[in-house]
Structure formats: structure tokens, C-alpha cells
Amino acid sequence: MKIDEYNYYLPPALIANSPKKPRSHCRLLVNKNHSDEIVHDHFYNLNQYLNPRDLLIFNDSKVFPARLIGKKKTGGKVEILLLEENGIFWQVLIGGKVSAGDEISFSESLLCYIVELFGKEAKVKFNSSGANFWCQVNKLGKTPIPPYIKNTPLSEKSLRREYQTVYAKLPGSAAAPTAGLHFSKKLIGELEHQGVEIATINLAVGLGTFAPVSEENIRRKKLHREKFQIPYSTVKKINKTKKAGSKIIAVGTTTVRALESASQKILSAEKEISGSTDLFIQPGFEFKIIDGLITNFHLPRSSLMILVTAFLQFRGEKDGRKKLLELYKIASEKKYRFYSFGDAMMIL
After folding, report:
1. Contacts of 148 (CB under 8 A, 6+ apart)
2. How many angstroms separate the CA atoms of 253 and 247, rounded?
3. How many CB atoms lie under 10 A from the CB of residue 221?
4. DSSP string of 73-86, one letter each residue
5. What residues contact 10, with CB distance under 8 A and at least 6 apart?
6. Which domain-ending residue is among 85, 113, 140?
7. Is residue 149 domain-resident?
8. What is the pTM of this model?
9. Range of the domain at 115
10. What is the CATH number of the domain that holds 221?
11. CA distance linking residue 203 with residue 257, whole number of Å
12. Residue 335 contacts by C-beta under 8 Å, 6 or more apart in sequence?
């Protein structure tokens, strides 16, 4: 497999730079198993494709204002993206020229020191921790929207609301689990009223989700590690749904990675599951938990496209990559909106 095989052309006008309002009014492309039928619908009609006792599983991780802009003692501008806290250190992405030992100031009261550099990644130590640190980050930080979202009309205040799922709980993600952005509280309530079950996992979205894919990643079948938790209540609902013969629908690729990474434990566990995953799902992967997937239209040459390809193939497509590129071409011709603030696709 070559990453260039997952390239496609997208007219720039189809890159969504703001969400649909209301959020459940985005479009929905539905592709059913063993069928060439493609349905063009709207997300608010999601209930038409789900049955009572089907289980929807969300990633309830919350995006925090992880983008900090500071300067070195020389005055040079430096931007960092907070990825993961490890004890007294943070793993970050660095934008700007820095060296180990440099001090970066973000305000009079918040600064960090570069401890180690690993290309564009770094280990840093802040002069603040705990509640005071988070207070500073919430005050100074910017919402880390992807670089392809240019000239968004949304203010920082609006971004903090719109680039967030309505069910987000635990802060920890440097990017939104975007398949969930289409759900409104009203729609979730309607689905529950219909008898659809709802459950959550928590996976802190980081480099494993949005970093560019290398040939080394493909060869080793591994991505950057991301931490996850699966509550015991979710484990019980998964096993109950499987026993009843109903469908388990993952909302987003991050949910898929958490569930499939822990599949053996889920099917036998009697407690909460926590861990981390570097799983890179590729064609040939045997899915053990999910029966359906709600996802967005992803960037070319991404691990997310490869995961969706693997699921299409697992559901019976002879050539999952060809089918996915076909679906993307149809979506492009029908003027669907792509990427984080774009429209949705459902594979059953």
C-alpha cells in the first residue's frame, strides 16, 4: 500500500470554513452494505437509518484552547500546540525556530522551557501547573482549528462553541472528534426517544489522528499513541447490543480506534478499560466491535481515509479504496462540504 494511492482532487470551494447552522442540518451521504445504493439526505434524518436498540458510541473528549503564541528572549515568534501532559512535562508541536534550553514567554506570568527537541515535536516544562496553569491556558490559548480552515468568519468565542461537540466532557483534545459536530442535543434526544442507545468513550485526539502519514507508519501499522478510556457502562451496552443482534455505530474514527484497540477486553471485561493506542487500521483489518460508521470527508493521504477504506472492505467491498474514492467523487460532484466543518457520511 502506498499513501499516494489515497490522493484525490478537491475544489478549494468545497472546504468548509464554518459549520452548518443548525449543526444537524448538514448533508448526509449514506452507503449501505452490499449495495450500490447511495442515499443523499440530511443529518437530522439520521433516525431513519437506525433501529430501536441500536447503539451509537461517541467520543466525549473536549477540545481545549491548545494553541499558544509566545516569543523567545530574542523577540522571535514561536507557536506551540499542546498535545499531551506527562507528569511535569508537556509534549507539544513547535512552530518557529527554537533550541533546547530556550525560554518562551506567553505572558508575564506564563512561560515554558524547551527541554528536548524531536523535529517539530518537543518536550517542554511550564512555570505553572494545576488550576493556575489551566486558567492561563483558557485565557491565552486559541482554539486549534486545522490549518486548511482559512479565513473563518468565526470569532475565538464562537470557535470555542462551534468546534466542540454538544456532549464533550473531559478536556484533553488538540482537535475535535469532528463526526460528532453534527449532533445537536435535540437530535440526540429524538434518537433516545426512538429507542436508540447512547454510550461514550474518551480518546484524547492528538497526533495519532491528524499527523501526516509516513511510509514508516504504513510499514509498522502504527501511529502516534493516543490515550483512551472506555467506561464500564459502555462495555455493558456493547455486549448487550451484540447479544441482541442490533447494530453498533461508531461516531468518528477516534471512537473506532479506541473500540477496536480494546476489542478483546471489551468482550470479556467487567470493569472500565483504560490505555493507549497506536493502532493504524488498514485494509485487511478484522473489525470486532463496530457494525457501522459515521464519519466526515477526510483529507487526502490521511490515516482516516485508510481506516474508512478498511471498514468498507470489511463490510464486503472487493476494493475499499476504489469505493471510497468513488464516494468522494460523487460527494464532490454533488457539492458536499469537506473536512472538519463539512458534511457527513454513514456506512452501514
Report:
1. 15, 299, 339
2. 17
3. 13
4. TT--EEEEEEEEEE
5. 300, 332, 338
6. 140
7. no
8. 0.95
9. 67-140
10. 3.40.1780.10
11. 9
12. 14
In terms of Cα–Cα distance, which of 302, 206, 213 is closest to 258?
206
Residue 104 near residue 111, CB atoms below 8 Å: yes
Q: Walk along the chain (348 residues) and give the pLDDT tens digit of each residue.
A: 899 999 999 999 999 999 999 999 999 999 987 677 899 999 999 999 999 999 999 999 999 999 999 999 999 999 999 999 999 999 999 999 999 999 999 999 999 999 999 988 999 999 999 999 999 999 999 999 998 888 899 999 999 999 999 999 999 999 999 999 999 999 999 999 999 999 999 999 987 677 789 888 998 989 988 999 999 999 999 999 999 999 999 999 999 999 999 999 999 978 999 999 999 999 999 999 999 999 999 999 999 999 999 999 999 999 999 999 999 999 999 999 999 999 999 999
CA–CA separation, 83 and 224 (whole Å): 11
Ramachandran angles phi, psi of 304, nearest 5°: -70, -40
Kindly report the CA angle at 323 between 318 and 324, in degrees rounded to 5? 130
Domain identity same for 232 and 99? no
CA-CA-CA-CA torsion sign (83, 85, 86, 89): positive
